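SUBJECT: A protein chain and its fold
Encoding: whole-number codes for local backbone shapes
Chain under study, with its fold:
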Amino acid sequence: MSEELPPSQAGTEDAVDEVRATDADAWATACAEDLAAEKARRRVQYGQPPVSAAEELRKLVDAVGDKLSSLNSPLLGAVAGPAAQQVVKQVVQQAKAAVEPVIERNPDVFDHLAAAGNELLAAYRSAVQAQEQRWTTRTTGLHKDLDEQHDERDEDGDGTGPGQRIDLD
């Protein structure tokens, strides 16, 4: 009997556990409401957030699939046209079925790949701009050097201008 709690205390512990469970649910509910309100405020302030790279890939696969399915092949003629179109639709369905699970399992991978692509593009752009700058400064310097050499020859009389006679003997 000493192990059993008196009836008045047992009801109190159940009530405390119930309050704790309710508090946890209330906290989660309040957090979800705050998050939804913050997202709505940001959407109003900044507009729609950009879609993820995974969603973009999904849209690309759908668009390419729709375009391929709607193409009519004049090379196959009227007889093979419907059969070929059915084969194309089937291939598109298989491609979508293969891509969709990969997108579902790894949506963050596509975001990382997109970020890496942006970094590569920025590095390429920087390299091209630096090379173009070197080309333009070197070309300007070359013209200046050639002009100076031409002016020096004319002053010394060693240069061959259009009014000077060339001795071929």
Observations:
- The chain has a mean pLDDT of 75.
